[in-house]
Amino acid sequence: MTKSAQDKLRVALVGAGGIARAHMRYYQDMDDVEMVAVADVVLERARDCCEEYEIPQAYADYAEMLRQAEPDAVSVCTPNNLHAPCTIAALDAGAHVLVEKPLAMNAREGQKMLDAAEKNGKKLIIGFQNRYEPKTQLIKKLVDDGELGAVLYARVQALRRRGIPNWGVFGRKDLQGGGPLIDIGVHMLETTHYAMGAPKPVAASGSTYTYIGDKPSNVISHWPNWDYQTYTVEDLAVGHIRFANGAMLSIETSFAAHIEKNEWNFTLMGEKGGANWDPPGLFHDANDYMVNTRPNWMPNGPAADAFGQKMRNFVDHVLYGVETLSPGEHGLMVQKMLDGLYESAEQRREVRID
Ligand SMILES: NC(=O)c1ccc[n+]([C@@H]2O[C@H](COP(=O)([O-])OP(=O)(O)OC[C@H]3O[C@@H](n4cnc5c(N)ncnc54)[C@H](O)[C@@H]3O)[C@@H](O)[C@H]2O)c1
Fold this sequence. Notes:
This protein has helices at about 20-30, 45-55, 60-70, 85-90, 105-120, 135-145, 175, 180-195, 305-320, 330-345, and strands spanning about 10-15, 35-40, 55-60, 75, 95-100, 125, 150-160, 200-210, 235-245, 250-255, 265-270, 275, 280-285, 290-295, 350. α5 packs antiparallel against α10, α6 crosses α8 and α8 (about 180-195) packs across α10 (about 330-345). By secondary structure, it is an alpha/beta fold. Bound molecules: nicotinamide-adenine-dinucleotide. The site of nicotinamide-adenine-dinucleotide (NAD) has 24 residues, from α1.
């Protein structure tokens, strides 16, 4: 049944880059959403989106957009340094917010975002799509049902052999807060942490290394000619997170590393069993044998489209009160782990996470 205009969620977007366009593609197909405006400092980009996705208003200034368009909800799709100011402005303007990952540049900013949501009685959702993946749900359920026993250790990998973004500002520490750890490591970190049951992180130990991105390179790769002159983030980050329940997590993440191939995965090791995320598998003992169990069939189509599920869940959460898998609070917990790893790398010692 087609919704009338007044029943629809009126959504605006801040940022009209790559990920904003993904948001627009999904919103466009939703019967109960109307995109009302988009803002980008590069006005031309916002205008192009308006034309392509039939959005009535383009703005260069997001504050002006919030004042004039008065959206019910806002997608924040800017570089990381603007996640906090844009989110807080949108919440203060009375809109619910879906902010792209990571939550912010650091946990201090993240806390201010959560405070603004509470003060205004609005919803703040973090754009962690991996938790909507069927294989994440499978492993989370195994953990919740006690099939693995206590999870003792998690190994997390988000490794690119050579994948330094050659667009946007992903090499700028001042605008992004860091490199692969905060940009791609965050995806697998949040997924693993969620599957483990979101234990409380208490300490971090990490190291970061820059050795390729800040130099010119002739190596032939998928994304050549990145801006090495403004590259101030790490190429490789490694570290450990210690949790209050005694569990430990190790993470390896890179834009550039001398490894055989890219890795995008996590492994859990529990007292009774273990699990891999991709391909999903359960490893346990049965009838005196070591047994590997694999799902025979996994959902496909829209149910397996994690990004689509995340977008739909945001709208369902705001319009119909459906529970969300990715509340802003989870973004903050993950942000504290990122902060701890970066701080530890800087101080060259383990640091506490409060
Ligand atoms: N969930 C995911 O899988 C995923 C994937 C990619 C990116 N992201 C996140 O999305 C965010 C944006 O990434 P992207 O790949 O779209 O980058 P991008 O560079 O393609 O787009 C960012 C856009 O923000 C605009 N912008 C900058 N300052 C602005 C301002 N003051 N007001 C309005 N617009 C402004 C830029 O002009 C640009 O068009 C990042 O935080 C990134 O971590 C998430």
